[in-house]
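Q: I'm writing up a methods section and want to include an example of the input and output format. Could you take the sequence below and give the corresponding predicted structure tokens, formatted cleanly so I can copy it straight into the document?
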Amino acid sequence: MPAELVEPLGVVFSLPDGALYQRRLDDLPDSVLAGDLARALVAATHPHGPIRTRSVAVSYVQTARRMARELNAAGVCGGVGALSPATLVEHWLTCDFHQERRIRGLLSAYASAGGALHPGIGAHLAGRRINAIKPSQPYRPYSDGEWRRLAAACTESTGASYAAHCQAREAAERGGDPAVHGAAYDNLAWLLARLGPVPDETVVAALPAGSDRPDRAGLAALRRALFPDADTALAYNVAFAMRTGIVPDGVDALRLGDITRTGPGSALAAYRKGRTGAEALNLPADAVRVLDHWLDHSAELRDHAGELGRSLWIYSRPEGRDHPGARVFALGSPRAEQRRAWARSAGVVGDDGEVLVFHRGRLRATYQHRRDRASWTGRTTIDPNHSAQVEGDHYLSSHTPAQLDAIEGVIEQAQSDIRRRAEPPVVTSATDAAEFAAKFPRLVEDAGLDAEDLAALMGGEQDVFVAACASPLHSPYAPGGTLCPARPWVCLLCPLATFTPRHLPNLVRLKEYFSRQATQMTLAQFMAVFGPYATRLDDDILPRFPAAAIDEASRDTSGPLPLRLEEMAP
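A: Here is the clean output for your methods example:
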């Protein structure tokens, strides 16, 4: 069951992401209303309702508890069935948009599960909401000074932690078994590297009888150097977010399987954005360096993390009263007090001189803001001694007749290119030149072809790769009289190209090439480079051939594509 009632009165949520959340409701003043609201929470849980994550479950439980307390304080007795429309509307007037939305969801789920509601309340649930949503304000980017100070703090923190980790790892490589060689520093490092982030008592128990007990502070420092703690993981997490601009929940949920290496210094990160779904990003070079350092830094900890080692952000927590024994945990979403404590220890201050409690949504907003400003100098005029009006009057609108002719020629050429791209492709299944000429007189007229040229065109003498070219020396992509230099897929949008059944194997081979590129590029990159050609091939050209011919051509796609070296798969 996605959710169920427990005794004393409470609800246990079993959510789709594997999380469990339990909350008691038996402390509310009206036990009847509390029981009805508990049943409404059960009915509103996924897959029957909107409660599908722990945070949503928390907000719905808080809304239900608030509703029960305030209705009881207003003198309302009985369960949800005793509510009148006037009482419910009066309560809604004290709520905001989101609280009203959650109450509507609870009451609708309660009615769907067979609960009795006043008919007037059912009419309200089907009508418009009372409270309007307040427009949200976009996150304000950090100033350049705050951004630099935060980046410097992350770099200093991760650099110092990584240097200490390398020293401890080298000591572990030099050391040996303390039972044989004594409890020296190198031997303790050797022992910890094999035992993992265990408590001090476990380390002492592994030492030979009668040996001196190692210093507790030194042992804790050695454990912290070998196995990164929460502050170190947070510093790497923030540094990675500042260099990628990935949404905070996408960064937190990254796993090792989401990172695909595409080269020695490049990688592709697949993550999930809550409002849109799965996305991918080609990581910048500096983000790849941060990622490589973190994977190397946390490698020893992952050896002792078990299943949790597949999460990207893990850390070891030192022993204490509330969690005896040092263990491994996933970083998750860092709380405000954790971010404040880290910023205070790292000495990060804002422009106001106070501790900068950074917000990771603002980190993403700042990343996008800085990226958008990177290609703009900030000046609106070419010459700082001129006003915009002077430059517009003297440099933008005053042209010689020759310049005006050149500008008009560029505009005409661009318009011609747009018109040619909009024309349907020439696809024929006939091999007879006369029939082709009768069927396509426009191509004959525009290209200036005669019967001899048509025979060469249809006979295969002027085949390029995916088409037959009407005039390779009159390409729209090269000066007249020179051979067309365009790539094979450019023919898909060229007005001089004619596609016949003998070209089908190469067309299918080109389609497979597009498919391979789509798996190695982001959607935006693929659409910018290959999008128009892939659309023309899938929507306009291949559908004009019989399915049997396409299946036959698909069996013969072993030949290579005429690609440049940089276009070939690694």
